[in-house]
Amino acid sequence: MNAFQTPSQLGVRPAARLATGLVTQSLAWMFVGLAITALVSWVVAHDPSLESAAQTLVLPAIIVQLVLVIGLSAGIRRLSATLALGLFFVYAALTGFVFSIIFVAYSLPTITLAFASASAMFGASAAFGFVTKRDLSVFARFFMMALIGIIVSSFLNLLVFQSNSLSLIVSYLGVALFAGITAWDIQRIKNGDLAAMLGSMEKASVMGALHLYLDFINMFLFLLRIFGGSNR
Is CB count within 10 Å lower at the N or C end of the chain? Predict the structure, then answer.
């Protein structure tokens, strides 16, 4: 039996209307997720008791986030689209809970600049991924290797080197990497690869939203490091 091949690998493309619908739905859920994150983060940051809880529980919250995103990615085929969407929103809310500490660590102008820059870069990358005829899946292995390299470099710098220069270099590379991954994710959604793998347009829109959400969040965090502006 032949291994599963995506529509992109087979050279098959969904109709333009369907492709646009897949991308639009994924982006719509992503924006809802970002709105939930921003709202929760703002509410927690402006409530002293909640902010204190966030600082105390940040590590358990991050662990729950990892469990959620891994569980959602691994179990999406067994979950209903509604439950998967609900778990995505829970993940977005937990991200907002953790991100509330950003309002303490960084000035509002810096956060605003990083968010605006991330939005512009995400939009440009998504547009490129949607219109380009080049198959971006050829870069998939490079993206994964680069991601591992950035994660390892970040941990080494945090635990060993503690170099501001290295942190800045890694941040610039991280922005470039997630710009490329954003374009690739948009192309995968547009070409129907996620829908074919999951056998459901609804589930594909949720997974597409999760991927794009993570792309944006990581781009934002790297830009926040670059712009600095710490209040402390």
Answer: N
